[in-house]
Amino acid sequence: LVAHLRTAGLLKTQGLIGGKWTDAYDGKTIQVRNPATGEVIADVPCMGGKETNDAISSAHDAFQSWSKVTATERSKCLRTWYDLLISHKEELGQLITLEQGKPLKEAIGEVTYGASFIEFFAEEARRIYGDIIPATLGDRRLLVLKQPVGVVGAITPWNFPLAMITRKVGPALASGCTVVIKPSEMTPLTALAAVELARQAGIPPGVLNVVMGNAPDIGDALLGSSQVRKITFTGSTAVGKKLMAGSAGTVKRVSLELGGNAPCIIFDDADLDVAVKGSLGAKFRNSGQTCVCANRIIVQEGIYDKFAEAFSKAVQNLQVGNGFSEGVVQGPLINEAAVQKVEKFVQDAISKGAKVLLGGKRHSLGMTFYEPTVISDVNNEMILSREEIFGPVAPLLRFKTEEDAIRIANDTNAGLAAYIFTNNIQRSWRVTEALEYGLVGVNEGLISTEVAPFGGVKQSGLGREGSKYGMDDFLELKYVCLGDM
Ligand code: ADP
């Protein structure tokens, strides 16, 4: 498979600076491993501040011309890139499964989803309209122009090796910005293949650069540069806070997609099948490793037992294994630390009185495979419901009234996604309005799409990605006053 990807020209193992494939200046490398087998897939450069500064200079030079290219041209480049991503979706999906572990079908789904941002923003590139404002004085004309913010530093995580990049780079390029991408060191190969396709699509040298290696050094170079006008980040809340603080020195714009603690509320009046299917999708997608995964399944007392039984049955059917094996829907966790974290959370819950209905331990496959798990009698004091689990563990909490459900759901510093299941239309509206979250799924567990705004409130982040609103984060408004008219 690796040989096949290499032949296809999609196994790139160097950074990209100013259009040139580049090694670390001191020749250092880091290994990229397959989480399902532990095997080394490739060595990639371990870069730091020097390479990052050069990537920033390249992006800054390229900005001078890319920001002046017509919207039609930028749109065409993005559309060609989209076509290339789609025509290589099998290979890109294989790369994702290789380095990230998710089942191949889900990985190819990520390619389609990831590419959709490039398609969508290829279209949005042509709709960056300004405004004309009625003037307060007769001899004046007031206008608003929208201009690209400049060089963008984009730092992305391992759980969606492609989509987290395209969701940032799509609107950045559409608006005329240039980008230095720092993918996760655990999943850089997908990012490199994607920018190779961008290169083939005619996106000019320096518009997209990729560095990877020593994350804090790369981060410091991006933060310290006054040429970098914006940081866009998806990852942990802790790192997001550091980047926000570090952006203060040069007053950068900041967009953050941070951790969630999604409640999934099942009311007595929900359709049981819809609730089981929806919460299963919301919980177990990517083996629970997404920031919008249901972290707490909060179930009303009248339906609790029925739901717990039906949900556990559905979870029992989830096949665990190597993402390349037919029928597998749950891959490995990303690494040993992720499994240890899940084990710690589960132990804490058990020691405080929770009951394991299913799973609750490592899978017999070994490595970083963990059994899909359901735990009942969880309360909001357990770590399971305080922190993001990022693993295949579904905690069930019990509630009595609608007010209780809302209080439990909002009792967290996170505010990304929430899900509710009910057949009462008034309740669905009331609860949706009361939830302190950026996204709400009503009777649906999989809600992300390129056409809708994705983002959190409270400590889950700043800004929105995707949709027409996703352009705003990459555009500055310039007010122009024409006098003596
Ligand atoms: P996760 O738990 O999802 O790995 P992280 O926040 O640790 O979340 O990682 C998300 C991205 O942030 C990765 O690309 C990682 O390398 C990067 N990162 C981690 N620490 C820093 C830092 N100090 N400066 C810049 N980037 C960082």
UniProtKB/TrEMBL annotation:
* Swiss-Prot/TrEMBL keywords: Mitochondrion, NAD, Oxidoreductase
Q: For this protein, what is any one GO molecular function term?
A: succinate-semialdehyde dehydrogenase (NAD+) activity
For this protein, the Enzyme Commission number is: 1.2.1.24
Listed pathway(s): Amino-acid degradation; 4-aminobutanoate degradation
Ranges of residues in domain Aldehyde dehydrogenase: 21-480
Q: Which reaction does it catalyse?
A: succinate semialdehyde + NAD(+) + H2O = succinate + NADH + 2 H(+)
EC primary class: oxidoreductase
Gene3D superfamilies this protein is in? Aldehyde Dehydrogenase, Chain A, domain 1, Aldehyde Dehydrogenase, Chain A, domain 2
One cellular component GO annotation, for this chain's record?
mitochondrion
Q: What is its main location?
A: mitochondrion
Cell location: Mitochondrion
Q: Where is the active site?
A: E257
Q: Please verify whether the record's keywords include Oxidoreductase.
A: yes
Biological process (GO), any one = gamma-aminobutyric acid catabolic process
- Pfam families in the cross-refs: Aldedh (PF00171)
Entry-linked SUPFAM superfamilies: ALDH-like (SSF53720)
The subunit structure is:
Homotetramer.
The similarity annotation says:
Belongs to the aldehyde dehydrogenase family.
Please state what the protein is called.
Answer: Succinate-semialdehyde dehydrogenase
What is the protein's species of origin?
Manihot esculenta
The taxonomy runs:
Eukaryota, Viridiplantae, Streptophyta, Embryophyta, Tracheophyta
